[in-house]
Write the structure tokens for this entry.
Amino acid sequence: SLMTAARLPDWIAASEDDYVAKAIEFSQAIPRLAALRAGLREQVRVSPLFDAPRFAKHFEQALWGMWQANQAAS
């Protein structure tokens, strides 16, 4: 998920009730949110979400695999 890739696993809700509980918890933790906001840009920048060479490699592999599957089916 995006939250996992952004290295924010504690923001992932397992259910609707968990989502509401997290929203309430985070809304009451203003200093924690401020600290997160201060470092979030850098945290996400160095995450797999912004690893363009890795993305390109995996995208190329996916395209190659689809082409091979198409050729095998022909």
